[in-house]
Amino acid sequence: MGRILCVVNQKGGVGKTTTAVNLASALAMANQSCLLLDMDPQCNATGSLGCEPTTGHALVSDASIDGAIVETKQTQLRLLPGSRTFQDVDLLATADDQQADRVRKHLDSVIDHYDFVLIDCPPSVGELTQSALVASTEVLIPIQCEYFAMEGLTQLIKTIKRVIVATDGRLTFGGILLTMYDPSLELTREVDQEVREFFGDIVFESVVPRDVSLSEAPSHGKSVFQYAPRSRGAYAYTQLCMEVLQRD
């Protein structure tokens, strides 16, 4: 059975979508069959791979999601596009067990076809994110190396622990990733030390630096590997990919 990684943080602008897209791309380059699932109504992960949002999100239907999965420009990487349709967003965010079970059943039905499924979640700990957590086997949390890095993280950890209990341990902590990393700044070093002291080994050794290539690549509908393969960002996500594979 493949691994289902939920990329989540209740704060926006921490590199969540950037991580989902580029880790998926790196895994595909490592010859891992990979599905990127866009559950964020902003559909940024969909656009980052040069694809268009769908008019109806496949996860809200009882029908198989196979027909909604699309090819990307990269071999081994497929995408389940996001939807901006308000009705779909409302249905996905419905606070009941039925919708959460539907999402989980959809992913369980295709996981044997992939080594990895990565879910890009909205910047919240609402029902939509919780549905994604219920369907996942691991949670990956990007944390920006800035002053409020730890703010709100306690609430997120409580939500994750509640899902772990509710799913009988199906969900585990996949890791915490430090993003927007600038070693020349004292604040970055302080956040790094604080996070590693508090969370220990679940923090990835790999860090993602501030790199303009990571910001520019989505506007070209490409991952950083297709846009700037020799950039610091590409190197960082290569290192992260190796760590994720080693943690299997």
From TrEMBL:
Coiled coil: none annotated. It comes from the Bacteria. CDD domains: ParAB_family (cd02042). Residues 3-169 form the AAA domain. InterPro entries: AAA_dom, DNA_Partitioning_ATPase, P-loop_NTPase. SUPFAM superfamilies: P-loop containing nucleoside triphosphate hydrolases (SSF52540). This is ParA family protein.
